[in-house]
Design goal:
2 domains, about 450 residues, eight-stranded mixed beta sheet, five-stranded parallel beta sheet, Rossmann fold, alpha/beta
Length: about 450
Amino acid sequence: MTANRKDYNNQTILIDKSVEFYGKRDYMIKRDKYLNQLIKAMNNGFPKVITGIRRCGKSYLLKEIFREYLIETGIDRDLIIVIELDDLSNSSLRDPVSLNSYILDLTDGKNEKHYVFLDEIQRVYTIVNPELTEGRHILAKPEDKEVISFVDVVLGLSHRKNIDLYVTGSNSKMLSSDIVTEFRDKATEIKMAPLSFFEYHEYSGGSVTDDLFEFMHHGGMPLAVLSGKDEREQYLKNLFKTTYFKDILERNKLRKEEALDELCTILSSCTGEFLNVEKIANTFESRTKNKICKETVDSYINAFIDAFIIYPVNRFDLKGRKEIGALRKYYFSDTGLRNARLDFVFPDEGQMLENIVLNELLYRDYSVSVGCFEQIEKDKKGKSVRKSYEVDFRAVKGKRSMYIQIASDTSKEETMKREVRPFVLLNDQITKVLVVNKPIREMRDCNGFTILGITEFLLNYI
């Protein structure tokens, strides 16, 4: 028997490598951050609800990575109940009452803790309370009030002392950012994203320079990472048409798929630019020669945010210490998805670097905003003028705060001066970091500002 040891949260576990199931370990993309969150939440009395953009690996995390962890820590396989609700053989369990009864039949009268995985929970339909229909199970209409849904099943099962419940879903019902509100704060949410650069590089094992170039262009959607280049690009393009747009239209009852498509392309080409609803509407009209009202733009943008396709980043007044204005920047949760909207043609390197840095900061649980401030200066004629300055990101995590500037090229002295100018003017005690697209280790300039390469920042500094 061949075995080795692995640490989970400082707990050493003996792994039996003679079992065929474990043979897949070397080919797994590690998602240790989310695995550790699941481990920490085990047996906390709440259902664990894994949310995130479709195809980011939620089901794989639960059914493969977390299941393997449970087995390796001594949980009997028979105590792990996996119900795949998109499987035709489980179609009868899409009735919420039937699903609830089935799980109770498997677990009632047994003291051992059962780990129940409900995958694709959105396939469970909503019915009118059978008490009001003489026991018949009738599909509920939107106007019905007394109903039973998957939310009732999840909350009810989570109250059982011998059940530890885990839930995933992959359509609009389970993707929305308000899903935990539906559970009335009685669930633990695990927010999952596509691979960060750290996760991608850990899996790839290539040179950091090559990995960054590949990641910048094709991102970290797990199935894209595992595909060949030609298949990768087609896969990313198809995700919008066959998956994301379909979900957004369904959830929000939208009819204008062409408008949704064009707005997504606009956001892709304007990644990292200050935008508001009016500017986006004007760009839409300029490109399509069709008018679109600001309310429609606002609802469509919120639909993209709600489905975790894009992240909004607000402005923060670095001197007034408060969020300001309606202008904000939008970044994609995955650079490959962003580039797919532009047919992988001439992606802007600066925008991509910003997007990768933002996603890595969010992966590391930083709160991020765009730093802004105004400064009174003298012009060439000696007249006092008000000038606006920007810092790419203000990142805060606990007691740690940073101002971050990202530059694709600082070989020219005037470019370097322009990038650090906001740092010089701020003159406060916040750590100031200039991230450049060069393979350099952390160093200090004459002002004491930190300068380091993009991969060093992503993999080590934060």
